[in-house]
Design brief:
about 180 residues; mainly alpha; 6 helices; about 55% helix
């Protein structure tokens, strides 16, 4: 629907921006699965989108949407995806796991919900051990094999470093 113009200092103090955010969050909530996820199967690449959706829900500041973010965080805790520490094959989960880590760390920092702390500790180990011998990250982790093995992809590394910084901010220590 037509919502009028953006405010002169959008997105700040902008009714149109606020409506767009609220409508987008509501659209997500209406499509959230009963267990908290946004997709049935967490195959290759399906951690990235839901993590970004969770970040959007957190950014809204609306308690209704915060509950949906909690449900998603709990689903990540219960269904974390492939575990490279156990040698499980991954595809491009360097992306997904970094964003999962960012979302769940932001959720913890926002709420103080200690239910997610063991997951965050695990995520710290996964992301840290994913670093290659030359100090970078790729789509997946070199000790597992898969897409772009041995090739570093700087944008993935940036996201992993962001996740590690947020995990540190959340008090999750690691090497």
């Amino acid at each position: 629907p037509v919502t009028g113009p953006y405010a002169p200092l959008w997105p700040y103090g902008c009714k149109k921006s606020a409506k767009i955010l609220k409508d987008a969050c509501q659209w997500l909530v209406d499509r959230q699965l009963p267990r908290g996820a946004f997709v049935e199967e967490r195959g290759d690449g399906f951690a990235l989108g839901p993590a970004l959706e969770g970040l959007l829900l957190l950014s809204s500041g609306d308690p209704v949407f915060l509950e949906s973010a909690r449900r998603l965080a709990y689903d990540f805790v219960k269904n974390p995806g492939p575990d490279p520490l156990k040698g499980e094959k991954q595809g491009t989960d360097g992306w997904g796991q970094s964003y999962q880590g960012m979302f769940v760390a932001e959720y913890y920092l926002r709420t103080g919900d200690t239910h997610v702390l063991p997951y965050l500790s695990w995520m710290r180990k996964v992301l840290s051990t994913g670093m290659g011998a030359a100090g970078g990250w790729g789509h997946n982790y070199g000790h597992v094999g898969g897409y772009a093995v041995g090739g570093y992809i700087n944008p993935v590394g940036v996201m992993v470093l962001n996740a590690l910084a947020l995990l540190e901010e959340a008090g999750i220590e690691g090497d």
